[in-house]
Amino acid sequence: MKRHYKRFFATLLLGVALFGLSGCVGRPRPVLHDVGGCFFIVGDPDCVQFKRTKNPRYVLCMDAQGHVKGKRRAMTNQELLMYTHYQQMRQLRSIEAELMFQRMTYWDPWYW
C-alpha cells in the first residue's frame, strides 16, 4: 500500500514540475553580464541586444528587432549581492526538490 502512495506522489510532483517548467520555455531569463567591470542584467525581451554607451555605468538596450528600448544602469554592490544571493537560493531549492523527488521514487527491494 505504501508503494502506491509513493508512486502517486512522485507522479504528482513530476507533473507539477513539468507544468512549472512549461511556463519558462518561451521566455529567456535575464542574466548577469560584465561590461567593462560593471554588471548589468540583460537578456529579457526589452534587452536582447545591448551596446556600451559613453558613460561606462550605462548600456543601451535593444529588442530582438534592433529597436532601442532605453538605457540600463550598472548594478550597485548591494544589488549585485542580492542578485547572487537570489540565484544561490534558487539553485538550493532546485537541488532540494530533486532530492525530495529521488527519496519519493526510491524503491528498496529489501523493504518487503
Quick summary:
The protein has 112 residues and is of the alpha+beta class.
Description of the molecule:
This is Lipoprotein. It comes from Nitratifractor salsuginis (strain DSM 16511 / JCM 12458 / E9I37-1). Helices cover 45% and strands 22% of the residues. Strand 3 and strand 4 form a beta hairpin. It has a 3-stranded antiparallel beta sheet, with no helix packed on it. A two-stranded antiparallel ribbon has the order 1-2. The chain is of the alpha+beta class and 112 residues long. It has 2 helices and 5 strands; from the N terminus they run H-E-E-E-E-E-H. Residues 21-26 have low confidence and may be disordered. The relative contact order is 0.13. The termini are close together. The protein has a domain at 28-105. The longest helix has 29 residues, at 77-105. It has helices spanning 2-22, 77-105; strands at 31-35, 38-42, 49-52, 58-62, 68-73.
